[in-house]
Amino acid sequence: MAQFQDVSKQSGLHPKPPGLVLQYGTAGFRTNAKLLDHIMFRMGLLATLRSKKTKATIGVMVTASHNPEEDNGVKLVDPMGEMVTPTWEGYATQLANAEQEDLLAALKDIIEEEAINMSQEADVFVGKDTRSSSASLSKAVLDGVSALGGRNKDYGLVTTPQLHYMVCCQNTQGKYGEATVEGYYKKLCQAFIQLTKNASNCTDDQKHLSVDGANGIGALKVREMESYLKKELHISLFNDGSAGKLNHQCGADFVKVQQNPPTGINSGERCCSFDGDADRIVYYYTDSEGQFHLLDGDKVATLISTFLKELLTQAGIDLEIAVVQTAYANGSSTNYLEDTMKVIVRCAKTGVKHLHHAAQEFDIGVYFEANGHGTVLFSKAAEEKIRQLAEDSIADDERKRAALLLQDTINVINQVSDRRAIDTTDAERRAVSPTGLQEAIDTLVKKYSQARSFVRPSGTEDVVRVYAEADTQESADALAHEVSLAVYRLAGGVGGEPKPL
Ligand code: G16
């Protein structure tokens, strides 16, 4: 077939280094940018197949998010703006690792397995972050799309949530919004303005926010969005990419891990940080005694679910709210949600796709990873109940006002989503291999009060992540160090023993 001739020809321009094996990780492929040209071309091919299969537009985002500048990566976006389905993650790995001479066979295997009609048209939306490698890598994606006869729309520099939004708008024929960057700003900002107008007692001070753009795409896009906010929010932008390096000493991951403000921000009140593709956000402030306070994903989920619960009570609407967390959620946030807020709490594996899936089971599913990824999902039935009340001419004013606030909330939330020596179970909270590691962790945890610890291989970086909590910072740091040493010894660590924190 002519299509496959193009693939053969074009793939020669994006050759795979022989023997290189890469896995589709937590959020796609991610490694040093120099190793990714063939992956990008092949993900262009795969996105085209996925589009033919689903008869819908598919998204491809070129970004390595919170990773250092020299890395890059790719995330695939499914028709409703969610992360690509797990079966296709498997195909992505197969296609990525096929040696050059086996590429066509690997492609045909997927076509056969999924019974794809190759005469079906295909559309792929492509976006990229500000990394210097992103321009040529996104070009490789576009080459892959055209090699299989797909149509593409190159959105250029966009945040990951913006690309998810475009895909969802396109596949809902504009019902979700207009599939342009301007449409995105208009939809979100109008809802935000409405929400702040309806919310009582919003002072001028509360309308100011310091934003750390992580020297990445988030900074560019916040600048663009500012005029749509019509002075309802005054933004001071830091780490805007004009001087510093992407994610270096700044950004959501830095702030969360270091529990400190980023370079450039003299954190007073109301600050927030994005990550490198602006799909994470954490908030923070420093109190009058100079103490730094982080409002991470756990805290954000708690605040949002409290807010929603109050509105539902005022509106008199009976809807089930659940909060989905990961093993990284601080134990006291889980207790608070369950015991005080009386909301259902579920634990899912790390990765937005897992949380998203779990959140879809409820009328309202609030999901946040502690690192700042998250959103709120409203079921269609929940949206409908809220809409009916908002439009009900005989409902009393307080109930209607609550319903209108809930509607604004729905609109302001972008609902679309989203080492190997260690193997885990129980939503990654317990290690099953290597032998003896979980027992060692259990013994160490018992030495401390209110302590919890777990380890898991990262799916985005070549590291093992160690989580520890305890009643004091010193104990948590000491436990983290002891668990790191256990991992190092039992799982064959490299690069010298971990140092105390
Ligand atoms: C991605 C995923 C997140 C995950 C993070 C870290 O985020 O979308 O769900 O929490 O990786 O994953 P890991 O601990 O496996 O390295 P991002 O912002 O890096 O794309």
From TrEMBL:
Substrate binds at residues 369-371, 456-460, 465. The keyword Endoplasmic reticulum does not apply. It comes from the Eukaryota. PROSITE patterns: PGM_PMM. The keyword Lipoprotein does not apply. GO terms for molecular function: magnesium ion binding; phosphoacetylglucosamine mutase activity. It is an enzyme of class 5 (isomerase). Binds 1 Mg(2+) ion per subunit. InterPro entries: A-D-PHexomutase_a/b/a-I, A-D-PHexomutase_a/b/a-I/II/III, A-D-PHexomutase_C, A-D-PHexomutase_C_sf, A-D-PHexomutase_CS, AMG1_II, AMG1_III, PAGM. One of its GO terms (biological process) is carbohydrate metabolic process. Its EC number is 5.4.2.3. Pathway: Nucleotide-sugar biosynthesis; UDP-N-acetyl-alpha-D-glucosamine biosynthesis; N-acetyl-alpha-D-glucosamine 1-phosphate from alpha-D-glucosamine 6-phosphate (route I): step 2/2. Belongs to the phosphohexose mutase family. It catalyses: N-acetyl-alpha-D-glucosamine 1-phosphate = N-acetyl-D-glucosamine 6-phosphate. Residues 182-282, 296-416 form the Phosphoacetylglucosamine mutase AMG1 domain. It holds the Pfam family AMG1_II. Its cofactor is Mg(2+). The gene is pgm3. Catalyzes the conversion of GlcNAc-6-P into GlcNAc-1-P during the synthesis of uridine diphosphate/UDP-GlcNAc, a sugar nucleotide critical to multiple glycosylation pathways including protein N- and O-glycosylation. Residues 52-88, 107-167 form the Alpha-D-phosphohexomutase alpha/beta/alpha domain. It comes from Cyclopterus lumpus. Keywords: Acetylation, Carbohydrate metabolism, Isomerase, Magnesium, Metal-binding, Phosphoprotein. Residues 435-484 form the Alpha-D-phosphohexomutase C-terminal domain. Mg(2+) binds at residues 65, 275, 277, 279. This is Phosphoacetylglucosamine mutase.
